[in-house]
Amino acid sequence: MSDPILSSAQKPPLFSGDSGSFASSRVVNTVFDTILAAVHEGRLQPGERISDSVLAEQLGVSRTPVREALQRLREIGIVEASASRFTRIAVVTPQQTAHAMVVWIALYGAVVTETIPLATPEIVEAMRRDHGRFLAHLGALDAQKLAEANADFYSHLAHSSSNPTLQRAINSVVHQVRLGSQHLPEFIDIRAIAVAQELLIAATRDHDVAAARQSLRMLSLIQVPFFDEDDTEVADDNADEASHDHTDPTHR
Q1: 18 plus 124 within the same structural domain
Q2: Which one-letter DSSP state was computed for residue 49?
Q3: The model scores a pTM over 0.85
Q4: In which domain, by residue range, is 66 found?
Q5: Does residue 236 surpass a pLDDT of 60?
Q6: Fewer Cβ atoms within 10 A, N terminus or C terminus of the chain?
């Protein structure tokens, strides 16, 4: 990993110190968010090796909050590690993406049940804006931009939930779905996602929970092609091999 995730001008001011439990917690959260954003924006690629010492130096913090942030990223499937071999950005296979989608759809069903009856015009308008962004990237099949717009679109109802346990559960799978979906646009029915978004906008506007659930059913019917096991293993080996081109990470 040769390029810094953040330039010095971008480093958040709280990185000037991380003493005390509250400050430390804030630093861990910010490191977590910073690495996650770098993954979703393509500055850290699937299979790319990462080093806690290099990240700590780039972000101006100690290694402790970086290690805690990386552990949290492992728990949501964004970082993977092999003892004494590597820590790297996860290579999310189509099968893993499909499995995560099953969980996400089930959880989002609970979200719409809670939030649709109370949805505000502001939420509907925000969803329309993100739907417009999604449509704008359809022609070029810009996978990263499509994944970003789609994640933002579905985040509005999730964020309006008053159930913190549900929000944590959604957060535990949504990032894996987003990362894995960046490699799927050429193989899945992207336009069905656009239609599902349109249905959810109308359902939210009308406070129609049944219609919202129907939009989720449309998502559940989208087929994600799986690679053969051999192909997956080859892809994983290639990612591991490619990661040797970056700075060797964690064990310094």
Answers
A1: no
A2: B
A3: no
A4: 8-91
A5: no
A6: C
